[in-house]
Design goal:
The protein is α+β, with helices and mostly antiparallel strands. It has a domain of 168 residues: Alpha-D-Glucose-1,6-Bisphosphate, Chain A, domain 4 (2-Layer Sandwich), CATH 3.30.530. The chain is built from six helices and nine strands. Strands 1, 2, 3, 4, 5, 6, 7, 8 and 9 form a nine-stranded antiparallel beta sheet that branches. The longest helix has 31 residues. It is globular. The two termini are 29 Å apart. The N terminus is likely disordered.
Length: 289
């Protein structure tokens, strides 16, 4: 993948989990902060109880466009592990009252401020910084995040990751963008890497489509193993090679933690996204950073 963002800016202080007193003062969206997380959905708990699934059940990255087909895949919840150390995870999230366009808005709006990012997953999200141009209000929501990079610190399980997520056009991952009318469907596509060294280690897709009650999100991650690669202009040597080696061999603990993380954050988001989006769009004065 091409496109290299500027390095993240060191915030000059140790980021913290949760909200400190006064951190939301003056924020119009403060009322949407809710540190109480709902239990993990039953269908996700059942999938995790099965343990690693057979690799042939997994969606190949090169076949990601099949997410636009009707119906569901053999593996909609759970994970699998591969001989080269890679993992694949799948998570299905029902989102009542949510439209695909709301998700396009969220992936632009949340990334520009740490407090917004923390709304999403109070138990795991720590820090967010945006590298891109989120100020152009003349373009559709999807165009506001594509081409940008979200530098985020977050816990996946008990491990704190410092990540760089570069959002790319769905067509880069095989989707026909003509088929992604934001009123009916969207595909949030990203290259996942480290934020402090030029190393990528996987891909993500959140495919969102309309259903009768709102939308359903089908999330897929391909991480580790063959997906670990230096960013454009970098070479695997010395410190970078050591970092790559640590990311190549992933296991059941990391895969399980990723499924839990994705399910919890997306279900929590679904609970307040219709309200915060409606308030943002109702009051045009909200269209400020």
């Amino acid at each position: 993948m091409t496109g290299v963002a500027e390095p993240r800016v060191d915030p000059g202080r140790r980021p913290h989990l949760g909200m400190k007193a006064g951190e939301l003062d003056g924020k119009w969206y403060a009322k949407y902060w809710n540190p109480v997380m709902a239990p993990l959905p039953q269908h996700v708990r059942e999938a995790l109880a099965l343990g690693p699934q057979a690799p042939p059940l997994c969606l190949e990255f090169d076949a990601a466009v099949s997410l636009t087909d009707a119906g569901h895949h053999d593996l909609e919840n759970g994970y699998s592990l591969f001989d080269d150390g890679a993992m694949h995870t799948a998570t299905l999230t029902q989102m009542p009252g949510v439209s695909p366009a709301m998700l396009d808005w969220w992936f632009w709006w949340h990334a520009t401020e740490t407090q917004r990012y923390k709304l999403w997953y109070p138990r795991a999200h720590v820090y967010a910084e945006w590298s891109g141009d989120p100020t152009d209000r003349s373009v559709p929501y999807r165009e506001r995040y594509i081409g940008g990079t979200s530098f985020v610190d977050e816990y996946v399980g008990n491990a704190l990751g410092e990540l760089a997520i570069r959002f790319v056009r769905p067509s880069r991952f095989g989707f026909s963008e003509d088929s992604l009318d934001p009123d009916e469907a969207t595909a949030v596509c990203g290259v996942v890497g480290l934020s402090r060294v030029p190393l990528d280690w996987g891909y993500l897709i959140h495919h969102v489509r309309r259903v009768k009650e709102g939308s359903e999100m089908r999330s897929r991650f391909w991480m580790g193993g063959k997906y670990v690669a230096p960013r454009e202009g970098a070479s695997l040597s010395g410190e970078l090679e050591a970092a790559a080696e640590g990311l190549r061999m992933l296991g059941a603990e990391q895969a399980r933690a990723m499924v839990v993380h994705c399910s919890q954050e997306m279900n929590h988001l679904a609970g307040f996204l219709p309200g915060i989006f409606a308030e943002f769009t109702r009051d045009k004065g909200r269209d400020q950073l």
